[in-house]
Design brief:
alpha/beta; eight-stranded mixed β-sheet; about 25% helix; about 375 residues; Purple Acid Phosphatase, chain A, domain 2; 9 helices; six-stranded mixed β-sheet
């Protein structure tokens, strides 16, 4: 099965770029979604026509009519366990699921209670092969997680602590502390159980995880991954996942083969229209962070082509560049080369034998 995975998707209107055409520098990259058995994206904004925003720094909203555009683009399924999913509360989450159901786009990661949010979704590819799809969230605003008595999204909450070197702070005051993070054991156990249950029912399991830190918030001395991410991703593979698809940082992060599984730590942005955006003024991030969100990492991304068959998944990257409207285009050869080299360099920090060829094919040694 050929699966196409992309990062964050916010479709606020009909895209200006055509869905078909020849792939050349400066042209639409949307045809990349056409040549696949399954296409999975991360829905980054709830689909809701009215309501009240949550009390948080930024709340997104796109009208329910956008669901038809998500389907028209070619998406078969979307992950819903994100830090924006309940930006308009439980009613907004229900509206999102109903809108996607109305256009036959499957979804995972949300439900009327925790059991439903953790339940796998069956996806049938155009080659009739079936996979199980789950969605989890570690970038979790308070109250967004589903419980046994409350609708919400599937959580893997993260516990945090901070390490300070007192001697270093005396000499270098203002130094950023090291942030220690690990997944909460109870959430991890439930996630593993959900993956194992899906593995028993289906031969192939794909898990989307909303995790990590956007580059504009990440201290340079910490590296691209938070401490909890690699152990969490690997543990999902150990539980039976064949593919882990990460998103939330809005930029590309490493890729890793672990045992017979594949971990994509961040798939970046794919199509990100401007949408209704509100928030509490005193909770807004500083202006310098918002400015950094317009840096190149936001616009340079990739379409991830994964071959799920016998043996470990095979991976090929197709570089894309978002235009001024937030829509994906084929980058210039120089930009495309730079995107592939960046992924290789990041990935070699995890496994020095990783190579990304000029054609985007990834070899793990």
């Amino acid at each position: 099965m050929k699966l196409i995975a992309v990062g964050d998707v916010v479709v606020a209107r009909r895209p200006a770029l055509p869905l078909d055409g020849d792939l050349g520098p400066g042209t639409t990259a949307l045809p990349l979604l056409r040549d696949a058995d399954l296409v999975i994206g991360n829905l980054e904004a709830p689909l809701v026509d009215s309501g009240y925003p949550a009390e948080k720094p930024v709340a997104f909203r796109v009208g329910t009519a956008a669901a038809a555009e998500v389907a028209r683009l070619g998406f078969d399924a979307c992950s819903l366990a994100t830090n924006q999913a309940l930006d308009y509360g439980i009613d907004g989450l229900r509206s999102t699921m109903k809108a996607l159901d109305g256009v036959a786009v499957a979804h995972a990661g949300a439900g009327e209670d925790l059991d439903e949010a953790l339940r796998e979704t069956r996806l049938t590819g155009r080659n009739n092969a079936e996979i199980a799809f789950l969605s989890l969230c570690s970038a979790l605003p308070p109250g967004f997680n589903a419980t046994s008595h409350r609708p919400g999204i599937a959580p893997v909450r993260i516990e945090q602590s901070y390490e300070f070197d007192g001697v270093l702070l005396e000499e270098q005051p203002g130094t950023v502390p090291y942030v220690c993070t690990r997944a909460r054991e109870a959430d991890l156990a439930r996630a593993h159980q959900a993956v194992r249950r899906a593995k028993e029912r289906f031969g192939t399991v794909v898990v989307a995880v909303h995790w990590g830190v956007p580059w504009c918030y990440l201290p340079d001395n910490q590296g691209p991954l938070a401490e909890y991410q690699q152990p969490l991703g690997r543990s999902l593979i150990d539980a039976g996942a064949d593919l882990v698809i990460g998103h939330h940082p809005h930029c590309l992060h490493p890729v890793e083969r672990y045992r017979d599984g594949l971990i994509l730590y961040s798939t970046g942005n794919f199509l990100f229209h401007s949408c209704e955006e509100v928030g509490e003024p005193d909770r807004r991030p500083p202006a310098r962070y918002k400015q950094r969100m317009s840096d190149r990492p936001w616009f340079e991304s990739a379409v991830f082509e994964i071959d799920l068959g016998e043996g470990p998944p095979e991976l090929r990257l197709h570089p894309v560049e978002l235009d001024a409207d937030g829509e994906p285009t084929v980058p210039s050869p120089a930009t495309g080369h730079a995107i592939l080299r960046r992924v290789e360099e990041l990935s070699r920090d995890l496994n020095p034998s990783t190579r990304v060829g000029a054609d985007g094919r990834v070899r793990f040694g």
